[in-house]
Description:
Blueprint: H1 21-31, H2 36-48, E1 56-61, H3 76-88, E2 94-99, H4 102-112, E3 116-118, H5 140-155, E4 159-161, H6 166-175
Parallel strand pairs: 1-2, 1-4, 2-3
Helix pairs in contact: 2-5, 5-6
Amino acid sequence: xxxxxxxxxxxxxxxxxxxxxxxxxxxxxxxxxxxxxxxxxxxxxxxxxxxxxxxxxxxxxxxxxxxxxxxxxxxxxxxxxxxxxxxxxxxxxxxxxxxxxxxxxxxxxxxxxxxxxxxxxxxxxxxxxxxxxxxxxxxxxxxxxxxxxxxxxxxxxxxxxxxxxxxxxxxxxxxxxxxx
Length: 180
C-alpha cells in the first residue's frame, strides 16, 4: 500500500492528537528501525537506571533555543501533569526526565525527589546555547545513539508528557499512538 499525501504534510510542531498513526506505522516500522548499537545502548540504559516502562512517566522538555522555532512553553504545566500521572501509578513508578536544559533538569529532580531520574549520558546545557554548538558534546555519534535509545524508551513508557519538536515527534511516531 502506498502512503498517502498525508505523510508529506507531517509537521513536528503540529497537534499530535491529529497524527494518523495508521499511515505512519508502516513507514516508521519499515524505514526507521534502530541499529544494533542503538538497541544495545537502550538495553544498557534500561539496566543502569532499572527502568520498567510500565512504571515510567517520560517527561520531555526542550529549552535552550526552542524559542527560535515556537514560543517558549512554561515548564510548570509539564511538571504538574507528570505529577498527576505519577500519582495514578503504583509506588514503584518514576519520572524519566529528558531535557537539554540544565535548570529544568535540576528543578524537576528537586520537585520529584527520589521518584525521578535523568539519563546522565545525555548532556545538558545552560542558557540558549544548543548542545550541538556547546563544549558538552564530545562524541556526536554516541550522543545520537543515546538520544535515539532514550526516545525508544520514552515511546514505550506508560505515560508521555512532552512538548512539540523533533524528540517529541519521534517519540510519538515510535509509540504509534497519542494515548497516555
